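Deliverable D4.2, example record:
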Amino acid sequence: MKLTALAAPHFDLAVTLDSGQTFHWEPHGVGFVGTIGHCALHIEQRGDELLVPRGAEEIVRHYFALDHPLEEICTSLPTDAAMVAARDYCRGLRIMRQPLWECLASFITSSMKQVAHIRQMSRALRERFGERLTENATKIYAFPGAERLAQATEQELRACGLGYRAKNLLATAQLVSTGAAELEVWRDLPDDELRAQLCGLPGVGAKVANCVMLFAYERLRAFPIDVWIERVLKDQYFPRARKLTPQRLREFCDSYFGEHGGYAQQYLFHHARKTTPRRRRARKSLRGASPLASTRSLR
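Output generated by the structure prediction step:
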């Protein structure tokens, strides 16, 4: 396997892949193996460079958003203590540009699941329905397209560990495969209209819609609020508030974190996920069990 160097300043590959944006990349040797669309890749990082298969430079640069002016983005974030701590902890974490359908389907399956479980479901879907690819003799499977999943049965999807999510994934796959939901066309919509279209799909609420807007449509102002982020916001920004409505939280995040709110959210989420003691996590999980549980849980 011939690898070529790709400049990647202000980027941490391992941190980005572990931040709850994507769920299929696996450690392999000194790097990672995974797919970008139907392209199987082995990627390594050495300092400020990525080592990628020759000919894959542009697709990797685009996927990991290496063109985002990360230092400028970090400088634009608020300077309160919580945000600064999260920003400094997450140095090199970039918001990725994922394939639309893969991102949407992944987050539809993520409701009420921990990251480890989401990864298991993603692997099961790929192995059962995806195209088999290889990278340096390593078996890798592409994420199945909407057309392929639309042909599956709900029982087949449940066999991949999806549970009740199978019905929603199947229904959305059918809408996308028939053109009733035109994901590519929606790229041109303003944020509010895009969010409304996504929320009209089975299994998609505001939280999942904002994840897809951020991680696939590159709407960097999108600020997904799940149970975990809601706790972070309440602890750090509203410690004395007895009751906060979802609307008030949304309005606060939009005005306070601004045009790069998605980066702020991802840094706050990842920092809390990695630094909160396990005992405190467990206590909060017991107190906060809810149908609105995180799409990207604590582990």
